[in-house]
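Handout, section B. The chain below has 122 residues.
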Amino acid sequence: MTAATRQEVLNLYRSIFRLARKWHAASEQMEDTIKEKQYILNEARTLFRKNKNLTDTDLIKQCIEECTARIEIGLHYKIPYPRPIHLPPMGLTPLQGRGFRTQEKLRKLSKPVYLKSHDEVS
């Protein structure tokens, strides 16, 4: 990891903790705010610890993009949880002979950048 990439990762980590400190739930209820702040902190710690030994620069850039996207989506929609995608089980373009494996492969490819690590953690 280069020094610039390391600094970018550390800045993201700090910005997430600043965001959690200033976070207010959309419902304006204190217990919801506390739960959401705790979720933000736990999610950040878990994902950053999981990825701390990455050395591939492309994979690191992908994780940075995912983190940035999740921050922006969380701020925009005022929810800290990743937005789910809704695809019916066999709902991707059916061509002749497409079976379940192909559908699963297409489903995996169609997953948005902000959900790449969500299934691995939750």
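Note. Helices lie at 3-22, 30-50, 57-77, 100-109, 118-121. Compare this with the example in section A.
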